[in-house]
């Protein structure tokens, strides 16, 4: 067991290291001299830009050998120094403090919403497999999968926000997670209002994925002997479905819910831009427009690390949830 | 309780990006988590194909499939024939006189001065005034013909999406073939590489690649980059790189099983070289598995281009793509000219739906399951 945990953590660190190496190489991908792109008019001698170009070059460590740059970068990342914006000198960690909780909450709400809708739908369609209702739900899910989240977000903003005026179409109020990161104070009512549309937009695609997955797993479980046994004991269908069949059918769902966090991160970034939430997506777009490549590099690193972390946790969670896996792994 | 239909022991699903993902049964779930991550491999059985009678699928295309084919033919035709279709120039803006003639200008008094305000965008076909004369499908935020932009947008979007999938197909396919055929250390290294690429969220990876590949240095400003560094090509590289590990793993899984077969052994016994066996014996058998996800891949790539446009790294204006038409003028959705967003959105939706549907049909036809066993 201990060895298992150790190897897991080792693997986690290894992937994190590779991801950090990737983001390190990103800035070197810029065609030509990166400093040229970050500070466009450095060629005019004696200008402010020329001075800043020097600063940028020193800060990126571009004046040192490649290996030194790399080791320094890894050291900085390991100690939580993610660089700073040129011009304002604002550390990237400050941006993260306000941006990260917004995205985290959005993803969490979307995930909860998706599971709340998908589990009953999955159980229902598995129970009624092949009927007209099942086919209708499946066809809807198929349609939902073809709906890009940015289109859905724009449509919801248009219909619910602009036409019906039920909910705000942009803006963000801090929720329960923000005070933990920064000194923003919680404002729960407006927070929920501002998050309903984005969270729902993000959830829709996931609902279709989770529902279809649970449905096919559930159909398989319902053919198992222990279900026949339960039925022969005269248990009600409802009890069999929710108490006996759902749990063994939901392990795959757990895996996928974890792995889907990657999709969720990508989706959240886009949806934040559409709904004007000041999260990671907004921060990335801002960094892009301002040519803050150091900031951009760090934001990407954080999102990738988040995904690796979630996968690691889901993996650990399995071992707790399913004893069979624990035994098999130890062996 | 109704008797549920038969199903194989593994299940697949499409994750949010539409890639299909194989999830192993619980007893094998440990495999899925050994940082093989999610087994994105080989077996791709759409839920639809499980229930439907496979024989019916095999011999006759349904109405849905025909509708999808017709739609795709229409879109591809539109994209190819764009320059000779009577839609006009997608980058030409309407002149002020024309707008005035169409009665889209009002004179308002502000601060004691008369100012003429012209609404160039509200000239949608469904505008309140019953559809002002002018462009067939209305104008965009800059007074350009939506019809022309949609047709040329199809050209860009389909070009980028197909190109990206082609990159993934060629590179992912060859790497997967090599990994699966040779196994051992080569396999470990290549699979590890795929896993690292997969450990970065897809959109974020594409965004990272585009944003760091695209910028021009100050020397190059104002000059058009060579064609291989145009924004469309950069998008193809970026989305293509994201597609490499997905196609690579599918190809690898299929290759693993096929290279164990007797005819491969026979070819080897006859003294055939590895390269020949891979290309002549293994590849033709692996191809259906690769091709069957190509259509789905194109759908995903179309959406990815749109998402990247929203993030500001899509195809560079004034060249229109379905994604950047939406991204550029999305503010108009809330300010009286929703047609600018709704028209490309509809095209994207129906195209993705068609491609997903056809992808499922193709998979059912080739019965990719065979390749996985």
Task: Give an overview of the whole structure.
The complex is a heterodimer of chains A (331) and B (373). Chain A is mainly α and 331 residues long. Chain A has 16 helices and no strands. Chain A has helices spanning 2-29, 34-38, 48-60, 66-78, 92-127, 132-145, 149-163, 178-181, 188-221, 225-232, 237-249, 251-259, 261-275, 280-289, 293-321, 323-330. In chain A, helix 9 (188-221) packs across helix 12 (251-259). The radius of gyration of chain A is 24 Å and the shape is globular. Chain B folds into 2 domains: 63-87 and 145-372, MetI-like fold (Orthogonal Bundle); 93-143, no CATH class. Helices cover 58% and strands 5% of the residues of chain B. Chain B has a two-stranded antiparallel sheet. Chain B has a two-stranded antiparallel ribbon with strand order 3-4. In chain B, helix 4 packs across helix 6, helix 6 packs across helix 11 and helix 6 (146-182) packs across helix 12 (294-310). Chain B starts with 10 loop residues before the first strand and ends with a helix. Chains A and B meet through helix 1, helix 6, helix 7, helix 9 and helix 11 of A and strand 1, helix 1, helix 2, helix 8 and helix 12 of B.
What is the compact description of this entry?
With 331 residues, chain A is mainly α. Helix content of chain A is 77%, strand content 0%. In chain B, a hairpin with a 5-residue loop joins strand 1 (11-14) and strand 2.
